[in-house]
Amino acid sequence: MTIDIVVGQALFLGLMAMTGLLLQRLLKLDLTLACLLAGIGYGWLVPVIGFDTGVRAHTLKDLVFFVILPVLIFEAAWHIKPHLLKRWLIPALLLAIPGVLISCFVTAALVYWGIGHPAGFPWIAALLTGAILAATDPVAVVAKLKALKAPEDLGTLIEGESLFNDASAVVLFAVVLALATGAGAEREQSALVTFLATFFGGAVSGAVCGLIAAIVVLLLRSVAATSLVLVFTAFGSFYLAEHLLHVSGIMAVMLAAIVTRFCLREQTHTFLVGAGITWDWLGMFFNAVLFALMGLVITFEMFSSQWLAILIVIPALLVGRAVAITVASLLSRLLGKPVPGNWQITLVWGGLRGAIAIALALSLPLSLDYWWTIQSMVFGLVLFTLLVQGTTTGPLIRKLGIA
């Protein structure tokens, strides 16, 4: 593939993202929904004009994991206030580790039972579905919390949970996918050990990368160089963890961002002056690209032929989420950090699915007979969370007296 073709395809992705931004402005939609519509529109247009987008099943995983996710994770972690995260760290970790496992298995069990076709949709397929849908996307909910002037602590808990459960859900997905494809068959008995080693191994490598990045920033003492170092750290920490150390790249990026931000907390008005703006536009752009990609590959047949599976997965996930929140909140109370009841309801209904779920669904190998069923369920559920949960979370927050 020549460089001019690669550049043209990259510009096409950017064009879809910018079209989504225009639709957001003109139609006053959420950015994710506007970019989804842009992707659907270009999906209809591309065959007519005969343009090769370069989007292939075998390239989507690398594009999403090595290019898009590092930016989205680093941007989300960078904007969390360390002192608030410290205050709600215990509940966030309980929601992100045991909570993700509970949500995954409860959702998987209900989907497996609901579909009731072990030959076409085996237990491992249900587990993959549960793992993909365990990760939450808090962007829309946190924006509504800020607009309604809800407690900042609740927003921090939602963002903190999402960050950690993104990492744990991706690790869980990798473990289950290895079992599904046969790559991890010999390690089936040590799946939990693999999960923990990958999760915490990524945390350690990310913390080291973050510390090195902070030292380099202090040595360079330049606003422009700081942005360059931070962007390099986002991609470099992910590549090091995933490709060389074979641990969680998502966890590595997250810890790299948190450690760097903490070490440079005294430089907010010096070297970090432009960092916030840099991550704002990078996060917006790559989030727009990801939802546009979802629109590009989505088809009407997903809903016409898999509508029953989509209807099954929606209540299954809500039940799994409710059980996970309840158990994690009870454990948090026992550890001296109770989560208010109205916050728990918000966490259940406000647990939207978005970027990570789409990324994992797009990365499913075509060698799995049930990949299309899982992808259809994930896309259908993401649309449900955008159109139903996302639009009703604001009124729910007011009804619960949170804002």
Mind describing the biggest β-sheet?
A: none
Q: Determine the CATH topology of the largest domain.
A: Na+/H+ antiporter like fold
**What structural class should be given to the helix and strand makeup?**
mainly alpha
Low-confidence stretches: 185-189
The value of Rg in angstroms is 20 Å
Number of domains: 2
Tally the helices: 18
Strand content range:
under 5%
Reported CATH architecture of the largest domain: Up-down Bundle
Domain Cation/H+ exchanger transmembrane: 17-398
GO molecular function: potassium:proton antiporter activity; sodium:proton antiporter activity
Subcellular location: Cell membrane
Membrane topology: Multi-pass membrane protein
